[in-house]
Amino acid sequence: MNAAQIRKTFLDFFKDKGHFIVPSAPMVIKNDPTLMFTNAGMNQFKDLFLGNAAVKHARIADTQKCLRVSGKHNDLEEVGVDTYHHTMFEMLGNWSFGDYFKKEAITWSWELLTEVYKIDKSQLYVTVFEGYAQENLAFDQEAYDLWAGLLKKAGLKPEERIIKGNKKDNFWEMGDTGPCGPCTEIHCDIRKPEDRKKGDGRSLVNTGHPQVIEIWNNVFMEFNRKADGSLEKLPAQHVDTGMGFERLCVVLQGKQSNYDTDVFQPLIQSIAGLCSHGYGSTEKTDIAMRVIADHVRAIAFSVADGQLPSNTGAGYVIRRILRRAVRYGYQTLGFKGPFICKLVPVLAAQMGEAFPELKNQLSLIEKVIFEEENSFFKTLANGLVKIESLFNALISAKAQKVLPGTDAFELYDTYGFPIDLTELIARESGFTVDRTEFDTCMGRQKNRSREATAVETGDWVQVLNEKLSSVGSSPVFVGYEKTECQAEIVQYRKVKTKNKELFQLVLDKTPFYAESGGQVGDTGYLDNGSEKISIADTKKENGITVHFADKLPKQLSGSFKAVVNTANRRLTENNHSATHLLHAALRRVLGTHVEQKGSLVNQDYLRFDFSHFAKVTDEELAEIGQLVNEKIRENISSEIKEMPIEEAKKTGAMALFGEKYGERVRVVTFDKAYSIELCGGTHVKSTGQIGLFKIISESAVAAGIRRIEAITSVRAEAYFAAHLAELEQVKILLGNPKDVAKVVQDVLAQNAELRKLSDALLKEKAQLIKAELMLKAKEIRGIRFISEKIILDSADAIKDMSFELKNEVDNLFLVLGAAVNGKPSLSVIISDKLVKEQKLNAGQIVRELAKEIKGGGGGAGLLCNGGRN
């Protein structure tokens, strides 16, 4: 079976078992504060496990694209070195939400592996949870008995095939908090037959052996881990299974390594074709090729999901992965320029059928990766220059050939230079790196970052038990129709950060829009008649709408009037609807290749990122702005409907890559011939409410991504009023001319002529002063010393004159004082010979002299300037 057939067989098998097949959720997560990336197949179903959303399909199956590089599931440093860890990987999974449990999950997994995929039963081993007395968790006798029955039917001895696993291996937890439960793993011994004869694989399970690998994990979700570490029962029992697609391909294709399957070989052979190394020639080059083949998948899928490389958050993770791949290509395979981008078409050809976003976003992905690679290769070049200067400084000082860890950390922190590359270059130059000092610097930085972002989140405290299960449910949102309603607090929790303490409240129903799709969360207040509680923000977490407050009401029970700040909501709606009009205008003016790549909508302005490979010209911006304002003046009524997603797609509604959509979606239309988009945000009743639209900036965000910022309504009016007032002031200053632009041009031309004349006079004056200074030079022990106060009100003119004197007077030691822009200034210049032979340093001298005028100074060893601010 090839990879595509293996994937299809899995989905078809569970479809026949009554499972609804869902598409993969985006790999980049946008509305979950606890995760940056999907790191397990169950992530998109968290709210179902927690009981925060209604179950529409009790049985689901899919293949989910996942990424594991940081936090609890940190596999990055093992990727490429071993043969089975990856950053981006596919997780085949089947789920039951309160439907079937252990019996069906275990029976079906055995059926699929041994009867459909025809895996040799004698190669399989299973683990079950042994229990954990400290938390009163019992041995999973049910799972053991189910496996024992299946193994006996297959003629195998259960005691030789079933292994009791500890809490670390057989109690699955997604993180510090959240759904969890015991699990049973299926392991496969893929060693060669002669190796299996030497000893069974039982003793090699969960030991890290590269040929005795876990291929499937069946998790039985029964508990919720609370912030205090305790466990509570979930409202219903669920099944969450995950089978590593790449590992399954190894087993079914009879390979010894994931990288030898048709999942990776096309990429690896393409890499080999780009460099002078064949795969299999050396372990060192093989590792480099495996790293690159793995990493290009992670990078490409992330960009396709809308995540661009950056210096923060998820973007920094992607940049780190890309730079690791570039480093291996540069260090080991000899690449001196962008090469990862050349692999994207190969990846799209491989996986584009299962994941069409790769084909649809191909040119954008290539462009983004090319620019990011090109930038890092320049960084490497700058870093090499810096390293060479550091080595030369150590040699000049006759110091030990040990690069200080502080310098290595500066290379890493400022220049983005990886520490292992610094160590490699140091070794090649006969140096070592103080790694202990580097690690100390790195530890300090991590601690500072950790302390700055540390958040201590308490457990939910229930107020209305009858309205909320033990783990919560999402409140009813009435904010599309109303901006206030009566509501009750059903649960709350305390959240502590470094600087403050706040509270998160969940209501039984709410008019507050939770931040989503680029639109900020609503603000407002809760009022029970005797106390008013300000709501500073509204967000979603695991399907729950969470309201942020600085304090708790004294009386938690009872009814509150929940009131949205309507002024801010209306301004935000203006900007959100204008964003839709802008998107449509961009596609009309620039072309249908334009697609949204990010947005921010609040009461002050809108920010819209979109795919386009050139700067938008002033003429194009004017046309776009004119079209949007034309649609505003037409006062088009908004048409907002909820419908099945397939029906919505038939209407031509724009869907965004990297967004997760449910089976039913909200379609927002402003004229069916102009703008139809899938959107869950709030909007104006008609476009006339927006009033006015003005683009205030257009810029580049990344390769192939442009950004427009714009204002509407009262902000746009204020913008034009301010600019008109400023223009009136200019006209008054110029004597109210009829043609303001012409008069300004004339003034600028006159100013340029006067500046030329002023510069010429300064140069002439400087030459006269220079001649006088040369006559005043004194000979002191072989040094030509000049010390003088001069009248020359230009720092540049003084600097130029000082260098001329240095070139014309041997062994010069020059000290000049002057008033520049009304402030005292000192300049010291010393000839190269004196600096070298007598170890004189202009910087140290000018700092001492500047103390006399209560100032400071600095500069190079030859020329320094000082003065008083």
Explain what the structure shows.
The chain is α+β, with helices and mostly antiparallel strands. Helix content is 39%, strand content 25%. It contains 25 helices and 34 strands. Strands 1, 2, 3, 4, 5, 6, 7, 8 and 9 form a nine-stranded mixed beta sheet that branches. Strands 15-16-20-19-18-21 form a six-stranded antiparallel barrel. A six-stranded mixed beta sheet has the order 29-30-31-32-34-33, sandwiched between helices. Helix 11 packs across helix 14. The longest helix has 36 residues, at 740-775. It is globular, with a radius of gyration of 34 Å. The termini are far apart. The model has no long low-confidence stretch (mean pLDDT 90).
Chain-wise SSE layout:
Blueprint: H1 3-16, E1 20-21, H2 46-49, E2 59-67, E3 88-97, H3 102-116, E4 124-129, H4 141-153, H5 158-161, E5 162-165, H6 167-170, E6 171-173, E7 178-189, H7 193-198, E8 212-225, E9 231-244, H8 245-252, H9 265-274, H10 283-304, H11 313-331, H12 344-351, H13 357-360, H14 362-396, E10 402-403, H15 405-415, H16 419-428, E11 432-433, H17 435-453, E12 456-457, E13 461-462, E14 476-477, E15 484-496, E16 501-507, E17 509-510, E18 524-527, E19 532-541, E20 544-549, E21 559-564, H18 566-589, E22 596-601, E23 606-611, H19 618-633, E24 639-644, H20 645-650, E25 664-670, E26 675-678, E27 693-702, E28 705-712, H21 713-733, H22 740-775, E29 778-780, E30 783-789, H23 795-808, E31 812-820, E32 823-830, H24 832-837, H25 842-850, E33 856-859, E34 863-867
Parallel strand pairs: 1-2, 4-5, 10-11, 14-17, 30-31
Antiparallel strand pairs: 2-3, 3-9, 4-7, 6-7, 7-8, 8-9, 12-15, 13-15, 15-16, 15-21, 16-20, 18-19, 18-21, 19-20, 22-23, 23-28, 24-25, 25-26, 27-28, 29-30, 31-32, 32-34, 33-34
